[in-house]
Amino acid sequence: MKSILSKNLILLVIIYLLYVVFSLMTHETLLADDLSKAAQVQQAKGSDFFSFLFSFLDNETMSPRPASGIITALLIYLSKYNINIYFLGLLSFPISCLFLYSILKENVSKSVGALITTSYALSLIASSIQFSVIMLNSNLALIFYLLSFYYVRNKDQTLKNQIISVFFFTLSTLSYEIFIPSILINLYFTHTNRNRLIYLLISAFLILLYRKGIQTQIFTRSYQRENLSSILDFKRDIMTLILILKMFFRDYFFSFYRTFLNVYKITIVEVILLINITASAYFTFLEIEFSKLKKEISNLFKISLLGIIISLSIFFLSTYKPSLFGFENRNLGAVRLYFSIMVICLLMLAFSKAGRKVRAGIVTAYIALIFLSNVSIKNAWIYASDFNNTMFHSLSTDLKTKKYDCISISYETYTFLKNNKNLILREPTFFNYWEATYLNTKNKIDASTKIYNSEQKKCKYIYEYPSRRFKIQNSQ
User: Fold this and answer.
1) Confidence class of residue 476 from pLDDT cuts 50, 70 and 90?
2) pLDDT tens-digit profile of 220-251?
3) pLDDT over 80 (residue 103)
4) Phi/psi of residue 452, each to 5°?
């Protein structure tokens, strides 16, 4: 019975995640970096795959991440036949959720694993990894890390299992860097100090071999994201700490407030999914024998706290800044994982003395809340994409009788992102100049016309939106 209930919950969650993929695909939702990748489809035409692959990897973004870069390049190359192929990259998120459930059910229980996976799947933290195709790199990093954890957690810690674990950990790092600090968790579950040292040395050797050796020799535009000296910049450290506290204790709760402003947009299909997922979560929780699992849940809670702390360390060791908002939240994939585990465990432990039905109701209420936030964020991504397309379509129409070499679009970007009620986490609208390439092509704007956001560059001609007026700037 327990197996059926937990599997039913996971099935419903996957159905919902596939529904999200279908919604984003049918609306052709592309924002931020996905716009630049969609533009590269044109570069793929007329070139063989391996030439395109090398060119694709030879840049600052992809050269440090060849494992995920190969998959992304393949999607872009195949998209030259049909742009919808690119959206298949969104499937990496539900696949990663299935991997997460598979690992959790073996280490805790099927019921607890199903609830944590649901919490992870619907979390508003690191929303980009669910709604952006290019963030398959984060999802691949999670899949590879989970595989490395599976082999290191194996009771039979043979040399073979250790090597396999190191191999998958390296692939995780070469997909996206977010799980590098989680090597500490792998080392915690390694049985002896000797094995821990071997595990650490081999992992460090393989990662440095690629980052400091192979990468710099093969690619002309390689880039090192780590900035270890920044940890000694105490002003920056304090600011990073303040941003982290703001993220968890203000922005997180404020985002739920924005969710409720948009809850009226929920569709009948989404209401049906909400009812089924929450009902399934409720009955799944009732099947948990808390007294038998209390020790495991308590340990998992402690590990999740450690995971959150070490995952946040990347912001002290790199140029990244912690943020729930926009595309900047893409670096929080590991935090999303450990935070999702922590919340479910915390709710179980905090209300351990309450009745089983009360505890089930509290956990179910939390899942209902994050489901609504997830739906609202999905709608916000679609809204932001439609906003970009409508704005560029209007510009295309208004340019029919005009021809300018350089245009700045002005729509009071920062105020728009902060105050627009249709946005939950300040979902990224047009800002960087390279986002315009695909939007120009899609809306049939002359490729010779350079388009910028006025916040980045002020051209002689400024296009004010939504008033659709051209204004001449005296000096550039």
Assistant:
1) very low
2) 876 655 665 666 778 888 999 999 999 999 99
3) yes
4) -130, 160
Average pLDDT over residues 51-76: 92
Joined tokens for residue 109: 């229980």
The β-bridge partners of 407 are 451, 461
CB 138 within 8 A of CB 363: no
Q: How many CB atoms lie within 10 A of CB 49?
A: 13
Reported as type and span, the H/E element at residue 461 is strand 461-464
Cα–Cα nearest to 30, from 279, 339, 386: 386
Provide mean pLDDT across the span 38-66: 88
* Closest-CA residue to 143 (of 178, 185, 119): 178
Question: Interior CA angle at 176 toward 170 and 182, to 5°?
Answer: 60
Cis peptide bond N-terminal to 466, omega within 30: yes
Distance CA 76, CA 191 (A): 43
Predicted TM-score of the model (pTM) = 0.94
Question: Cα–Cα distances in Å, from 178 out to 60, 61, 333?
Answer: 17, 14, 7
C-alpha to C-alpha distance for 171 and 378, rounded to whole angstroms:
29
- pLDDT tens for 405-438 read 899 999 999 999 999 999 999 999 999 999 999 9
The CA distance from 433 to 456, in Å, is 8
